[in-house]
Amino acid sequence: MPATLWQFDPTHSRVGFAVRHLMVSKVRGEFAKWSGTFAFDPDRPEASTVAVDIDAASIDTKEPQRDAHLRSGDFFDAEHFPTLTFRSTKVERAGAQRFTVAGDLTIRGVTRAVTLDVDYAGQVKDAWGGTRAGFSARTAIDRKEFGLVWNMVLEAGGLTVGDQVEIDIEIEAVRQADVKAA
User: Fold this and answer.
1) What are phi and psi of 34, to 5 degrees?
2) Is 46 helix (H, G, I), strand (E, B) or coil?
3) Boundaries of domain holding 134
4) pLDDT at position 61
5) I want to staple 101 with a disulfide (CB 3.0 to 4.6 A). Which of 59, 96, 116, 143 is the partner?
6) Which of 133, 57, 53 is nearest to 87 (CA)?
7) Which DSSP symbol is given to 2?
8) How far is 25 from 27, CA to CA, in rounded Å?
9) Maximum Cα–Cα distance across the chain
10) Which residues contact 96 (CB under 8 A, 6 or more apart)?
11) Which residues lie below 8 Å from residue 83, measured CB to CB, with a gap of 6+?
């Protein structure tokens, strides 16, 4: 049975994150430039695949100095590692409209297995005759596992940047064509 090929619509989607700052609040940000495709079959999720490429230099936390620091060798080292990637390895049903997507996330040349919890919002015909689908996904990673180890000890104890990074993704995708799932 074929899976349907979809393309992300970046203007109606978001790849975001949040991390503790000074142990008392969260800094939120997103990546402005990213692309990818996926094959999705809601009836046979195991036939689905996802591939995403994220431009590390497109990080945006609404604070230019912090963004420059995040692009530097202290964090993403965007000059030497310009792309973050995610490649799915397994998709499974976790409920009526829920899936888990396991895959390999690569940051700074370091690849680790992660699992995304995904909610499927369904499909709709758009005003131009196309078909669109919506997804929300989330996971958390330990930034140190990817070589993002910079930090500073606070005068009162604790650290400037938390280790756990919450990843929050909102996707609207456009159906492209039917393809045979691998």
Assistant:
1) -160, 160
2) helix
3) 3-179
4) 93
5) 116
6) 53
7) P
8) 7
9) 60
10) none
11) 53, 54, 55, 56
Residue at token pair 């396991």: 102
The answer to whether 107 and 146 are in contact (CB under 8 A) is: yes
CATH code at position 120: 2.40.128.110
DSSP three-state, residue 79: coil
- The values of phi and psi at residue 130, to 5°, are -90, 170
Instruction: Tell me the one-letter amino acid at 173.
Output: A
| C-alpha–C-alpha distance, residues 40 and 44, integer Å | 8
User: How many independent structural domains does the chain possess?
Assistant: 1
Instruction: Tell me the whole-structure pTM to 2 decimals.
Output: 0.88
Question: What residue type is 168 in one-letter code?
Answer: D
Kindly state the tokens that stand for 84. Answer: 């973050």
CA distance 123 to 83: 30
